[in-house]
Amino acid sequence: MMLQIRPLRIATVFSGIVYRVVICLLLITWMITLVACAPVAGPLYSDSQKVSDSYAEMGFAYLLQGNRERAKRSLVKALSIDPRSQTALHGMALVYRSEGEDTLAEQYFLQALDRDRHFSAARNNFAAFLYEKGRYNEACKQLKLTVSDTLYRKRWQAFENLGLCLLKIDQPHQAEDAFLKALRLNARSPIALLEMADRRHSQKQPLAAWLFLQEYMSVAKMTSRSLRLGIELADVLNMYDERRHLREELARLKQ
């Protein structure tokens, strides 16, 4: 199972950003005028940062739209104004990751984290990048740092990812702990619910597994994996109507 980058969820971090690109452009023009007229002291630095942040925000908007070239240009502009902008550095890492430029992506992830070691969204995405490259031990290390941030808004998703990562390095008990922590933070965590259903099934606890699976079905779309698991559990629990229904759903899914 692929580790998901969701902890960033750019669309939620920058709510409504796609519809504000034009406003950002106007704001940037206005701020540049302010910077040009400002004294050389503190206000210049403050206004420059605002301009940089606006370019970085616009870069994420283009990234959401799938326009990597415009995203890159906006992020480069942000960095030309503020080379230490962790938001722009993170954005560049995501752009290069999407382009398959692994060396550059890693460099920008590390720069963003060097700028702010508490930047949990970037750290979580860096872990996802490492996971995709099969560097599971490194990914788990980054995720353990991420979940230690108790103020991270998407901490439950980081626990989901940590659980998946721990499964890859053959630490199922620690993975289960991570999934249960994800559920304590968000009882509707789909990955954790499905993984716990699978864990309880492997532990010969079919009723507990069925309950986890039912919760999963209430919050997520059915997949081949979840349907097959449901069929196996229904068979063990002698729930013949449920088994027939799940088989029909699996057949429809395959069509």
From TrEMBL:
TPR repeats lie at residues 52-85, 156-189. Keywords: Repeat, TPR repeat. InterPro entries: Pilus_4_PilW, TPR-like_helical_dom_sf, TPR_rpt, Ycf3. It comes from the Bacteria. This is Type IV pilus biogenesis/stability protein PilW. Pfam families: TPR_10, TPR_7, TPR_8. The lineage of its organism: Bacteria, Pseudomonadati, Pseudomonadota, Gammaproteobacteria, Oceanospirillales. It comes from Oceanospirillum sediminis.
